[in-house]
Each structure stands twice: as structure tokens, then as C-alpha cells.
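User: Arp2/3 complex 34 kDa subunit. Structure?
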Amino acid sequence: MIFLDFHNPAVEELLLTRFSNAKAGIKFEKIDYTVADFDRVLYRIHNLEKDKSKLLVSLLVNFFDELREYDVEGLLKREYGAYMLDEPQPGYSVSLLFDLENVPQNYEAVARHVSMIKRNCFAAVFEPFFLLQALADEPIISKRAVIHYSPNEAMYVQALEDRITVIFSTVFKDADDVVIGKIFMQPAANAVGKLSRLTATQS
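Assistant: Predicted structure:
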């Protein structure tokens, strides 16, 4: 079975190193890293121009405009507060700014939280659907969100009266994609087979 992290370990490790070095009084060094993630998401971690004591973390999400329909910027502002810049760096969707001369005491938790920023972008879609179901006084008329997170892939989120359904649609174009698809789908196939055998035994 394959387990995917809901945070980006490379981003977390880079931030932990910079924060801990700053806490230890180690001289600030120039940094400029680009980290690629799934779904064509990119992180850039670098210094503010001509100021090594300021650290920027920028995120590029190609489907960010679709997330704006669900107030993604409001959710990120709630999660990251004063760290979030009103205007992101050119070419990026959102930017966070950290002062290495004033590293927070809970910097380990901050590093982990920043590494979850892509996850929190997706949360902007799910949160209103969960709230809708939790707070609805009347039966829910089916509502659906569609996020096209790559040219051949989409995520559908649908709220029904008794559940939230999430469907991922993808196209396997070449032989490598087919192999990877089989690896990801095998645990689901095994679970279905196990459930079928259990049902047959009980009947």
C-alpha cells in the first residue's frame, strides 16, 4: 500500500533548518530553492531581495483561480495570519514572509503548518461542504464542486443528505501511467474483493 504525506517534507525540512540555525545564532545565508509537488504545484523558498534575514515561502497552484470561488485566500489568511502577504510574489499564488531575527518559539509547529499549505488550499473546497452538511436544518439539495487540478485530471466534491462524496477523474496516457494507476488501485481492488468474500460468507 502507498501512503502519501499531506504535507511537503522537503519544505518542512528546509524551514526547520533555517529556523533552528537562526535560533542558534548562525550567520544568515542566501537561499533560493524550488520544490516541486504533485498536481504541478511549485514552492519557492528564498530570501527577500538584499535581506538574508527575511525568508519568503511562495506557492504556485495552477488551479488557484478555481479555488477563489471557495474563498481560499480567506482560509489561508485565517491559517497563516500576519505571515501571509497581501500581494504574493510575481508568478505565485500566495506568499508567506518570515523574519529570521524573530523566529517563533514554536517554530517546529510553524514549519509543519507551512508545509501543509497546499493541503490547506484544498481545504477551502471541502470546508463549506462539511459545514453545509453539519448545519443544514433541511434536506440538502445536491451541490457539487469541480476543481481541474491538471489538464487531464479533475476532482469532484458532492454534498448529499447523508454524505460527502469525492471523485477523482484522471486519464492514463502512456504505459508508465497505467502501471502507476494499477499500483494505486490495487489496494481498493483488494478491499472490494475482501468485502465480497465476507458478504458471501455471511449469507
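The radius of gyration is 21 Å. The longest strand covers residues 51-60.
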